[in-house]
Write a structure and sequence with these properties.
Elements: E1 2-10, E2 19-27, E3 30-36, E4 46-57, E5 59-64, H1 88-104, E6 107-112, H2 119-128, E7 136-139, E8 143-146, E9 158-161, H3 163-177, E10 181-185, E11 193-194, E12 197-198, H4 208-219, E13 224-228, H5 232-241, E14 245-247, H6 254-263, E15 267-268, H7 271-280, H8 288-311, H9 328-337, H10 342-348, H11 351-356, E16 374-377, E17 391-396, E18 399-400, H12 409-415
Parallel strand pairs: 1-4, 5-6, 6-7, 8-9, 10-13, 13-14, 14-15
Antiparallel strand pairs: 1-2, 2-3, 4-16, 11-12, 16-17, 17-18
Length: about 425
């Protein structure tokens, strides 16, 4: 099957400037030619003429949760229940709903950052095999935490271990279950814990030796690792353990930044989640404590992130979305606020994200040989990053996603 795109603007996400009046030929799901309009012979191709739109690669969310809290994606009442009594089938249907929402927002690849019962692996395979629409999933398993690491009520999202041997064994079980990125829980949540154990946001958990055992096991079959961090020490521990990329990186001192630069370890800062919890946390049922702490954390972490960006730390875009307000478009907008150019923020959600996942041979840019994960936007995000909300058509491996799945108009009005 051939498709010839004739578009007003091409943002190829290689770092090159946006080009006008371009054509892109797709054959059997991959990009085979790129050139000025009128220069590509494409006999028998389906022609898509969009003279007023921008063509760019599909977005990549490096930190998404299909199942973690399962808040109502579009309209209706919020559901912040984490009940372990909920049927697996119910969780699957809710997760599939979340997958459709994120796909419609232009995200064609997500790294699901973890859920209990290996549900991320399940939805990865369901989407891959065509049972439900959704972004391509790079799956993590249940979060691996130290004994006592989870706040009461959230233990169903992960597993707790003590010592190097238990950590190593759990990593092996995750690999056997089919995870792509083993997720380590190296610090508490933004709320500092729960029940009778509440401390500073992101207090450090796990030892370097425990984390290193997990990393060693994951790297044997060439799988990746990430680490949920909050405190400066949790970041340092993760870097020392050899973790492939850092989730959140909420608080960073100069030593953290120096270590990240020395090892070329990327971070996925997930500023959108703190922003959303500060603005909408009470409405979503999280309580005033979470909303207040989120605001305090967000202000400090944005300053830390700006320092890291200015010094050259690698940054990829991820939302940590367990609610619809924390969109990838908002995450990119927040990256611009810390000093990135519009184009740099776009690259954080495309080219750089693909490199972090080691998938840059196939996705992340519009180049010959790449999979045709493509989106058409009404406006140009290189001119205004908020234009990432104007997605009108979506293609996965050269096949168009049938839209609309949902009306996202009010969703984006709320986000922006």
């Amino acid at each position: 099957m051939k498709i010839l795109f004739n578009v007003g603007r091409l943002l190829d996400a290689t770092g090159a400037p946006v080009r006008e009046n371009m054509s892109v030929l797709v054959e059997d799901g991959r990009i085979t030619q790129i050139g000025a309009q009128g220069t590509i012979e494409a006999a028998g191709a389906t022609v898509i003429d969009e003279p007023n739109k921008t063509l760019m690669p599909g977005l990549i969310d490096l930190h998404f949760h299909h199942f973690l809290l399962l808040l109502s994606p579009i309209g209706g009442a919020y559901d912040v229940s984490t009940s372990t009594d909920e049927l697996i089938a119910t969780k699957i249907f809710k997760g599939a709903n979340a997958a459709k929402v994120w796909l419609q927002s232009g995200v064609t690849t997500v790294r699901d950052a973890g859920a209990g019962q290996f549900l991320a692996v399940a939805i990865k395979e369901a989407i891959r095999d065509g049972y439900t629409p959704g972004a391509r999933v790079i799956a993590s398993g249940p979060l691996i935490a130290q004994t006592g690491g989870f706040r009461p009520g959230s233990g169903g999202h992960g597993v707790e271990v003590t010592g190097v041997d238990e950590a190593r064994r759990e990593a092996r079980l995750h690999l056997k279950a089919g995870v792509d990125v083993v997720k380590i829980y190296g610090a508490s949540t933004i709320g500092g814990g729960g029940g009778r154990l509440i401390s500073d946001p992101g207090w450090t958990q796990f030892t370097v030796e425990e984390m290193r055992a997990i990393v060693e096991e994951a790297h044997k079959p060439k799988r990746l690792t990430s680490c949920h961090t909050g405190s400066e020490q949790s970041i340092k521990n993760a870097v020392l353990a050899g973790v492939d990329f850092i989730d959140h990186a909420t608080f960073m001192d100069q030593e953290c930044i120096d270590m990240l630069l020395e090892t070329n370890t990327p971070i996925v800062p997930t500023q959108a989640i703190a922003w959303s919890l500060e603005k909408y946390g009470v409405k979503m049922g999280f309580g005033a404590h979470i909303a207040r702490v989120s605001g305090e954390v967000s202000e400090k972490s944005m300053k830390c992130l700006a320092d890291a960006y200015r010094q050259g730390v690698r940054i990829g875009a991820g939302t940590d979305a367990d609610n619809p307000h924390a969109s990838l478009a908002k995450e990119c907008e927040l990256l611009v606020e810390i000093g990135m150019s519009n184009m740099e923020a776009v690259l954080a959600a495309t080219k750089s994200a693909a490199e972090i996942l080691r998938l840059d041979r196939d996705i992340g840019t519009v180049e010959v040989g790449k999979l045709a994960d493509l989106i058409l936007l009404d406006k140009d995000p290189a001119q205004d990053i908020r234009n990432l909300t104007t997605v009108s058509r979506i293609f996965q491996s050269g096949k168009e996603v049938v839209l609309p799945l949902y009306d996202l108009t009010s969703f984006y009005e709320k986000v922006n």
